[in-house]
Amino acid sequence: MKSIFKATAILGSSSVISVVAGLISAKFMAQMIGPNGIGYLAMMQGFLALAAMIAGLGVSAGTVKTVAKAVADNDENSVASNQKAAIALSLISGLTALFLVSIFSDFLNRLMLDGQGARYEIFLLGIGLVFTLLANCFTGILNAHHNIKALAQIAVANTVLNAGFLIFFVWLSGIKGLIFGIVGGAIFNFLASFYFYKKKIPTVN
Fold first, then answer.
1. Predicted TM-score of the model (pTM)
2. Average pLDDT rounded to a whole number, residues 91-104
3. DSSP per residue over the chain, as a string?
């Protein structure tokens, strides 16, 4: 019972911090880029989220289930093999998606961004997608091992620093800086999840 309350407190605190940081970021962004910029930001974030859901192939959710079962069974070989397979699948899926995004960039620009994006922006979103899929994989593994504190720390760091990336790049380049803020946030998300994965998950040969 105590562990349940502790996990609830940790996740609840991280959610509050994330919401507050999100509200502050939204206020700054609205003042800096206006309604049109906010709309364009929402379209790019929506594109990345939808692409991650499709290209992810359910690997993250499947990883949580299979690895958690192996952990519960104390089957170290199964834990290691499932984790390696999930990482490999996420990387292959991400690179494949990046290749397809590059080929169909004009079509995706018209479909998802209402023709407002540039080819390089679509390509950069594809790069962001690769890092997002890997980050989702690592957080799925952490979830399977019940590392609640690490997940909460990742969530808070991502919200705060993603907001910082967006504000910095928009301040630097205006609306054109949005794409760099989004991709920078995706890369940081990957780095944070990978760091906690290496720190918290025991290595099994």
1. 0.86
2. 93
3. -HHHHHHHHHHHHHHHHHHHHHHHHHHHHHHHHHHHHHHHHHHHHHHHHHHHHHHTTTHHHHHHHHHHHHHHTT-HHHHHHHHHHHHHHHHHHHHHHHHHHHHTHHHHHHHHSTT-S-HHHHHHHHHHHHHHHHHHHHHHHHHHTT-HHHHHHHHHHHHHHHHHHHHHHHHHHGGGGHHHHHHHHHHHHHHHHHHHHHHHSPP--
